[in-house]
C-alpha cells in the first residue's frame, strides 16, 4: 500500500516512516508538514492509497485535509494519528469520513491491524479510545462481574478473537507469546462472565467492540 504521512514535526513523521517500514507491503512515498503540499501531491500522484495525518499541521487542521480528500480523492483511505484523542474529536473525524482514528500511543502492531482493516473497507478506532469510551459509558462496568474495565491490550485481543484468529495468529500480530494471549482470553472470559468464545464474541458485538 502506498502511503503519505502528514505531521507538523518532521522528525516524528520520519520515525513513524521507519516503524511502518516494518509492516509488509507498506511503502511510504512522502512526508509533509503542511496540508496544502500533501493535497497538491495527491492531485498529481494517483498511486497514493492511504494518507496518515495528524490533526495539528503547520498550515491547516487535519480535519480540513480530511474533508478536502473526501471531496477530491474519494478512493484514498484516511487515517488520523494524533495525541488529540478526545471522544468528541474522534466522533467529528469519523463522521467527516475518516477510515481510522488512532492515538499516537498506539503501538505498531495495532497500526498494522488498523491498516489491514481499512484496506478491506472497514472502519477502525484504536483500542485505547474504544476502551475509554465504553468505560465512560458504563457499559463495561455493568457487564463485568468484577466491575473492572478491559485493558487496552485486552480490547485488542477481543477484536482479533472476533475476527476468528487463533491464539497463535493473535500472538504473531501483536508480537506477544501465545501464553500471554491465552492469559488475556481467560481474563476476558472472567470479566464478561462468558462461558466460552462464542459468548465472548456475542458480548463484544452487542457492545460495539467488533462488528
Walkthrough of the structure:
This protein is α/β, with parallel strands linked by helices. It has two domains: 2-125, Response regulator (Rossmann fold), CATH 3.40.50; 132-206, Orthogonal Bundle (Arc Repressor Mutant, subunit A), CATH 1.10.10.10. It is built from eleven helices and six strands. The protein has helices spanning 10-20, 35-44, 62-72, 87-95, 108-119, 127-137, 139-143, 152-162, 167-174, 178-192, 197-206, and strands at 2-6, 27-32, 50-53, 77-82, 100-103, 124-125. Strand 1, helix 1 and strand 2 (27-32) form a beta-alpha-beta unit. The chain is elongated and about 55 Å long. It starts with a strand and ends in a 5-residue tail after the last helix.
Layout of helices and strands:
Blueprint: E1 2-6, H1 10-20, E2 27-32, H2 35-44, E3 50-53, H3 62-72, E4 77-82, H4 87-95, E5 100-103, H5 108-119, E6 124-125, H6 127-137, H7 139-143, H8 152-162, H9 167-174, H10 178-192, H11 197-206
Parallel strand pairs: 1-2, 1-3, 3-4, 4-5, 5-6
Amino acid at each position: 500500500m502506498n502511503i503519505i504521512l502528514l505531521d507538523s514535526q518532521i522528525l516524528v513523521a520520519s520515525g513513524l516512516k521507519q516503524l511502518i517500514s516494518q509492516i509488509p507491503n507498506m511503502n511510504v512515498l512522502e512526508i509533509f508538514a503542511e496540508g496544502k503540499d500533501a493535497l497538491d501531491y495527491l492531485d498529481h500522484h494517483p498511486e497514493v492509497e492511504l494518507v496518515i495525518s495528524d490533526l495539528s499541521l503547520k498550515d491547516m487542521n487535519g480535519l480540513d485535509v480530511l474533508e478536502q480528500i473526501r471531496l477530491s480523492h474519494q478512493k484514498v483511505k484516511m487515517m488520523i494519528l494524533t495525541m488529540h484523542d478526545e471522544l468528541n474529536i474522534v466522533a467529528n473525524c469519523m463522521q467527516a469520513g475518516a477510515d481510522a482514528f488512532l492515538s499516537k500511543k498506539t503501538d505498531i502492531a495495532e497500526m498494522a491491524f488498523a491498516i489491514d482493516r481499512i484496506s478491506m473497507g472497514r472502519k477502525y478506532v484504536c483500542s485505547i479510545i474504544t476502551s475509554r469510551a465504553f468505560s465512560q459509558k458504563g457499559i463495561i462496568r455493568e457487564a463485568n462481574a468484577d466491575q473492572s474495565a478491559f485493558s487496552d491490550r485486552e480490547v485488542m485481543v477481543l477484536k482479533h478473537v472476533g475476527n476468528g484468529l487463533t491464539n497463535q495468529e493473535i500472538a504473531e500480530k501483536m508480537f506477544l507469546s501465545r501464553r500471554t494471549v491465552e492469559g488475556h482470553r481467560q481474563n476476558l472470559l472472567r470479566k464478561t462472565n462468558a462461558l466460552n468464545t462464542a459468548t465472548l464474541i456475542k458480548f463484544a458485538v452487542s457492545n460495539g467492540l467488533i462488528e
